[in-house]
Amino acid sequence: MGRETPKQQQQQQQQVSYTVEQLVAVNPYNPDILPDLENYVNEQVSSQTYSLDANLCLLRLYQFEPERMSTQIVARILVKALMAMPAPDFSLCLFLIPERVQMEEQFKTLIVLSHYLETGRFRQFWDEAAKSRHIVEAVPGFEQAIQTYAIHVLSLTYQKIPRPVLAEAINIEGLSLDKFLEHQAANSGWILEKGHGRGQLIILPRNEFNHPELKKSAADSVPLEHITRIFPILG
Amino acid sequence: MATNYDYEEAPANYDETHRQDLGYDPNFVPDSVKSFVGHLYRHIREKNVYEIHQMYEISFQTLSDRLFKDTPWPSVDAVAHYVDNDQVFCLLYREMWFRHLYARLSPTLKQRIDSWDNYCSLFQVVLHRVVNMQLPNQWLWDMVDEFVYQFQSFCQYRAKMKNKSEQEIALLRQYDQAWNVYGVLNYLQAFVEKSNIMQILEQEKEGLEQFTATDGYDYSGGSNVLKVLGYFSMVGLLRVHCLLGDYQTGLKCLLPIDISQQGVYTSVIGSHITTIYHYGFANLMLRRYVEAIREFNKILLYIYKTKQFHQKSPQYEQILKKNEQMYALLAICLSLCPQVKLVEETVNSQLREKYGEKMARMQRYDDEAFAIYDELFSYACPKFITPSAPSFEEPLVNYNQDAYRLQLKLFLYEVKQQQLLSGVRTFLKVYSTISLGKLANYMEVDEPTLRWTFFFFLMFLCI
């Protein structure tokens, strides 16, 4: 038989996920697909992919047959949902998880983590995440996903970020941060500037949020003058 | 907290069956009923849609009011004789029979189970046989609407295990497939698929199909039943998913219907209101307040202008109820996301009248505010269900409030997170330039927190 090459393995993986996605689209209200959906969650975790629809489908089936629920799988779904921020996937999942399950320790922790992310309290987030390594380390790519989200948040509100603010948001300091910044400068258009007082200022690429004059239409959003008022405040 | 939410139907136990039967002979068929079923049967065979509609909407109500105010209609076995024992007509008659029962009386468990069986038989005929009928949209909508309603009602009933009699428990154990959630969802899904309605709507956009233009009716000698049931089932699926708390999937099920336009969903007022109510509610739970406000505003204006035309209709009460609930939901949305420009004047003045004071209090975000959010949400929300089968182990408990409690809790949690944003909004209205430090001081938060609060303020309003 011989060993499968990585390419063959990948093709097989792709075949499996294609089939699961099809199942969810065509035959979602079917108790028999529960094991496939559970396997698919584990596959999302190990291959760093993600499918909200499939995971919602599974949470629904757990709702229909609570005795078949695996809290470990549910926890993994929630961690993947956290990694999808700023998408509201985490709350979408919570709506489908019974209250008594949400009262368990690991879920309380995840809810607290989500709360910190939703209210931009990154320092508290990283502190809490450090205390719950067993939960978050079970899912590869977690740290990077949250860092990406943090950078996304920064890019929307800052024209020039002081280095300590960035450090706190993405939980990287010192030499590691230097390397990280070099990499971003080389590949993502970040500009590193010397600021007054506390060291570096990082300038993220221009977009319509940190440069409102780039915004195309302000149909029913806050009038432009309100937005431009805020930016000087943020520095 | 939960008083507004209490289950409306009175519990039926075995004594009530006898009360139902007092003075009721299921085999007695008054002349007016013989005439009614005879004519209706003929009109259905001849596809006289207008006459069918008149009989369905008006004659049935008139006879119900006159002869069957608090008893069921004659049994299907008794009337079958007058309609050639036609199987399909009997299934349709029985569907109306049960709907009347649910509306005027309290169904027993056995009746609930029998109604489920009738839906299964009726739906299987439509799905697997060539049905050569044209029925009014009102009737087809009512079928889907009633099907979902009876499912919701059954889940509520079943979740109250505490005072169930031994006979009821035995029946529940025996007929464990009745109103099971898989069955309900799969029937609705089957209608959507078998009717090909999604492709029909797609092709209609390119001028390759006619559906909306004919209100779903088939003018080439065919039947509208499967297509229109498929169409309304998309709304049915939205509704069931909202009852389960899966708003994302619910909205997905509705996607093929373009609610920015008129469509078959607006051809029946009940369908129009149910669609927008659930669409708006789902968007509210997904924090898309602007979208919810837009749609609630539109429908409330529409109801204001047209409700007088429905005063005599059997749906009038429901229309009024949903109208009030949507004002409550609009009050919630506007308190969380003030958007004065999106609300039309008439609607706004109605809103001020009903909820002006409460809205002012909600925006204070103190304990009293949360109590009002709780009250309005509980009044206006769908009757959430626990879809799983009950546990028959002692002690028997009532868990009919669990689903509602969870949705309410998560909603109030979201309101709490909005607290921060409301503070920012107030200050920005007043100050044109202010330093971050000073603002932080006024708001009694630290600077980093305020920084991130601005981000969410912007995300919230600009995106």
TrEMBL record, chain A:
Annotated GO CC locations: eukaryotic 43S preinitiation complex; eukaryotic 48S preinitiation complex; eukaryotic translation initiation factor 3 complex
For the PCI domain, which residue ranges apply?
A: 50-209
Q: Which SUPFAM superfamilies has this protein been placed in?
A: ARM repeat, Winged helix' DNA-binding domain
Entry's localization field? Cytoplasm
Look up the domain of life of the source: Eukaryota
Q: Which GO terms describe its biological process?
A: formation of cytoplasmic translation initiation complex; regulation of translational initiation
Query: InterPro entries, per this entry?
Result: ARM-type_fold (IPR016024), CSN8_PSD8_EIF3K (IPR033464), eIF3k (IPR009374), PCI_dom (IPR000717), Transl_init_fac_sub12_N_euk (IPR016020), WH-like_DNA-bd_sf (IPR036388), WH_DNA-bd_sf (IPR036390)
Give the matching Pfam families.
CSN8_PSD8_EIF3K (PF10075)
Query: Which GO terms label this protein's molecular function in UniProt?
Result: ribosome binding; RNA binding; translation initiation factor activity
Keywords assigned by UniProt?
Cytoplasm, Initiation factor, Protein biosynthesis
What the protein does comes down to: Component of the eukaryotic translation initiation factor 3 (eIF-3) complex, which is involved in protein synthesis of a specialized repertoire of mRNAs and, together with other initiation factors, stimulates binding of mRNA and methionyl-tRNAi to the 40S ribosome. The eIF-3 complex specifically targets and initiates translation of a subset of mRNAs involved in cell proliferation.
What family classification does the UniProt entry report for this protein? Belongs to the eIF-3 subunit K family.
Give the multimer and partner information.
Component of the eukaryotic translation initiation factor 3 (eIF-3) complex.
Q: What is this protein called?
A: Eukaryotic translation initiation factor 3 subunit K
Instruction: State the species of origin.
Output: Theobroma cacao
Lineage summary: Eukaryota, Viridiplantae, Streptophyta, Embryophyta, Tracheophyta
From TrEMBL, chain B:
Where in this chain does the record put each PCI domain?
Answer: 295-463
Keywords attached to this entry: Cytoplasm, Initiation factor, Protein biosynthesis
Read off the PROSITE patterns from this record.
PCI
Under Pfam families, the record lists:
Paf67 (PF10255)
Localization, per the record, is: Cytoplasm
Q: Annotated Gene Ontology MF terms?
A: translation initiation factor activity
Q: Which GO terms describe its cellular component?
A: eukaryotic 43S preinitiation complex; eukaryotic 48S preinitiation complex; eukaryotic translation initiation factor 3 complex
* InterPro entries referenced in this protein's UniProt entry, alphabetically: eIF3l (IPR019382), PCI_dom (IPR000717)
Please cite one Gene Ontology biological process associated with this protein: formation of cytoplasmic translation initiation complex
User: Which family, according to UniProt?
Assistant: Belongs to the eIF-3 subunit L family.
What does the protein in this record do? Component of the eukaryotic translation initiation factor 3 (eIF-3) complex, which is involved in protein synthesis of a specialized repertoire of mRNAs and, together with other initiation factors, stimulates binding of mRNA and methionyl-tRNAi to the 40S ribosome. The eIF-3 complex specifically targets and initiates translation of a subset of mRNAs involved in cell proliferation.
Q: How does it assemble?
A: Component of the eukaryotic translation initiation factor 3 (eIF-3) complex.
Protein name in UniProt = Eukaryotic translation initiation factor 3 subunit L
